[in-house]
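User: Please predict the structure of the protein below. I'd like the answer in structure-token form so I can feed it into my own downstream comparison script.

Assistant: Understood. Taking the following sequence of 218 residues as input:
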Amino acid sequence: MQSEKIVTNSFPKKAPSRNRVILRIENIVATMDTHTTIDLDQLLQHFSDIEKKSNFPGAITKFTKPKATLLIFSSGKIVLTGVRLEDHIPILVDKILKKFKQAGIEIEETPVVKIENMVGRADFATKINLDISSLVLERAIYEPEVFPGLIYKLKKPEKICFLIFSSGKVICTGANNLNSIKVSLKRLASQLKKNGLLGGDKAKTKSEKVPTEMLDLA
């Protein structure tokens, strides 16, 4: 397999070749531990954009630049979700720490931040026969009367799971870094190509103005 060639922030005007796939990150979920007990009422008194819902044990705040939702718990743990780029995480951490400081909440230790899940969406731009795929892919589950996509779990890494649709679109979950998604997508493509499941009729694709990459599968 040749070394991967990535064209970052490209917005394809036409479908990729059959040796390439459009890849974009849909959502990154990360956790942050401040090692400090947080007085949620103190936060609520200082900021109108931090709210507490009656059926939720923590407080919620949303940022627009960069876009993300933060779930804040009194234990000092925070969940960041809706993040689109890994580079945005340090920016969001700085933003919430500034809010804590403005509210008089001192964070003495350096917070520990960890990416828990990264959800990617790929588009092979070619139709995939899910009936045959369910027979040739080990650990595949396909029940079209329940769910229109095929569920495929990789053996390595074990947490990676694909949702494969007949349109050629694929959702990848369970990764905690971008490289894992890229490597896993190449393994999936290799399995599909080996069994003649890639390279059929092209599916229609629509370009979207979001950060995308063109991953070389060859």
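That's the full token string. The helical segments are 40-46, 88-102, 130-136, 178-194.
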